[in-house]
Amino acid sequence: MIASVAGIVASIGADATVVEVGGVGLRLLCAPGTLASLRVGQQARLSATLIVREDSLTLFGFVDDDEKQLFELLLTASGVGPKLAQAALSVHTPDALRAALSHGDVSTLTQVPGIGKKGAERMVLELRDKVGPVSAVPAQGGRVQAWTEQVRQGLVGLGWSQAQADQAVTAVAETIDGPTPPVPALLKQAIRMLGKTR
């Protein structure tokens, strides 16, 4: 079993990165926040989970062991596969997810694309007692902070300045009315806004 991957970042895509380890390029599917923390040509260490299927071997990469452990816990819930577990970690921080599961916050869980009300209720029922200690930070505050930082890091990683990234994040935040969209959608919106100013 592959528990972690350390090497030089060869490339970063929309949903995956390639890390060269001993001359072999390993492709890891990652959440936007994890991808935003990487830089091509630099050394990186990612916690990893290998998902084995009849027709594929897929590596999922995480910024730390905490995120990986929550991903693996989510997989134990009925009806939750790797893509849905990763989508949950793309929309919410690990702390926000743990808080939502622990407190039965169905509305927070249903903000994840692919999780409906019944699915969220089933996840709460199955995982509530397994999530471990929950941070005192409210789920809402943790989530808002998480997406702004992830989008900001993503923009800087794509070549914009910190000031431009801050400006775009503020502009995107002003457009949100209701549930927070997934981070990839927010990042695309920020890129569109910056594209108009270039």
UniProtKB/TrEMBL annotation:
Highest taxon listed in the record's lineage: Bacteria
Annotated stretches, region: Domain III: 149-198
A single MF term (Gene Ontology): four-way junction helicase activity
UniProt keyword ATP-binding present: yes
Pfam family of the protein (one): RuvA_N
InterPro entries documented for this protein: DNA_helicase_Holl-junc_RuvA_I, Hlx-hairpin-Hlx_DNA-bd_motif, NA-bd_OB-fold, RuvA, RuvA_2-like, RuvA_C, RuvA_C_sf
Compartment annotation: Cytoplasm
Main localization, broad class: cytoplasm
GO BP terms, alphabetized: DNA recombination; DNA repair
Domain Helix-hairpin-helix DNA-binding motif class: 72-91, 107-126
Keyword list, A-Z: ATP-binding, Cytoplasm, DNA damage, DNA recombination, DNA repair, DNA-binding, Helicase, Hydrolase, Nucleotide-binding
GO terms under cellular component: cytoplasm; Holliday junction helicase complex; Holliday junction resolvase complex
Family that this chain belongs to: Belongs to the RuvA family.
NCBIfam families in UniProt: ruvA
Assembly and oligomerization: Homotetramer. Forms an RuvA(8)-RuvB(12)-Holliday junction (HJ) complex. HJ DNA is sandwiched between 2 RuvA tetramers; dsDNA enters through RuvA and exits via RuvB. An RuvB hexamer assembles on each DNA strand where it exits the tetramer. Each RuvB hexamer is contacted by two RuvA subunits (via domain III) on 2 adjacent RuvB subunits; this complex drives branch migration. In the full resolvosome a probable DNA-RuvA(4)-RuvB(12)-RuvC(2) complex forms which resolves the HJ.
Record function comment: The RuvA-RuvB-RuvC complex processes Holliday junction (HJ) DNA during genetic recombination and DNA repair, while the RuvA-RuvB complex plays an important role in the rescue of blocked DNA replication forks via replication fork reversal (RFR). RuvA specifically binds to HJ cruciform DNA, conferring on it an open structure. The RuvB hexamer acts as an ATP-dependent pump, pulling dsDNA into and through the RuvAB complex. HJ branch migration allows RuvC to scan DNA until it finds its consensus sequence, where it cleaves and resolves the cruciform DNA.
Domain notes: Has three domains with a flexible linker between the domains II and III and assumes an 'L' shape. Domain III is highly mobile and contacts RuvB.
Protein name: Holliday junction branch migration complex subunit RuvA
Organism: Catellatospora methionotrophica
Gene that produces this protein: ruvA
